[in-house]
Amino acid sequence: MEYYFYNFASGVDVYDSLNELHKYHNSTSFLISAVGDLSKASFKCPSYDKPAIFEKKLEIITLSGYIRSTESHVHISVSDEKCSVFGGHLLSGTTVLKSLDVLIGVIPNLKNRSISSSKYNSLNIDIYVLPDCPWSQRALKLLDSFHIKYNSYLITNDEEFINILNRTTVSTFPQIFINDKFIGGYSELLNLSDKGDLI
Q1: Which fold has domain 2-107?
Q2: Long-range residue pairs from 19-28, CB within 8 A, at least 24 positions apart, any chain
Q3: What is the pLDDT of residues 92-110, one digit of tens each?
C-alpha cells in the first residue's frame, strides 16, 4: 500500500476534491484518517432522497470509504458545538472551514470479490444502466451497501436501448431484474430496501 497526505484548504469542496484524486492514483484509494473542520456539510441519510445540509462550524469525527475511477463511496460523521454527532453518505457541497488533513492509502491492482450468504447464491440480479445517470449510480451504490452481488450492463448505443425497451416497454433507467423478472428502477429498489426485503 502507498500512502499520501493531503491538506484541503479553506473553501475546498471535500467530495469533489476526493473524486479528483483518482486522476493522480488510477487505483483504488481508501480514506485512513481525516482531521479538520467544515463550514458546510452535505450528506445523504439512509432511506432519504433529499440531502441533509448543515451550514455552521462542524468538526469532522470520521471520514471513511473508498475512491475509484468509476465510483466513490464515502461516509462522513461530524459534530456540532453541542457535541451532537450526525452523518451519512458524503455529497458534493461539503466545504472546508479552515483546514482538513486527509491520509489516503492506495492499493494498486486491487481485486474486488463479493462475499454473500449461501441463502442468496441462487439470486440473479441484472441491472441495466446509462452512462452518467444519477439514478443508475444510486441503484448501484444501494446494492453495494448491502454487499449484494449483481450483473451490471451499460447501455451505450441505440441498438442496446431498443433491445431493453422491447423487453420492458420502459424507457427510464436503471432497469433491474431479479431472477429474470423485471422489478422496475431505483424507486422500486429503494422501496424493497425500506421494507427490509432487499436483504
Answers
A1: 60s Ribosomal Protein L30; Chain: A; (3.30.1330)
A2: 19/67, 19/72, 21/67, 21/104, 22/67, 22/68, 22/69, 22/72, 25/106, 26/69, 27/106, 27/107, 27/108, 27/109, 27/110, 28/66, 28/67, 28/68, 28/106, 28/107, 28/110, 28/112
A3: 999 999 999 999 998 877 7
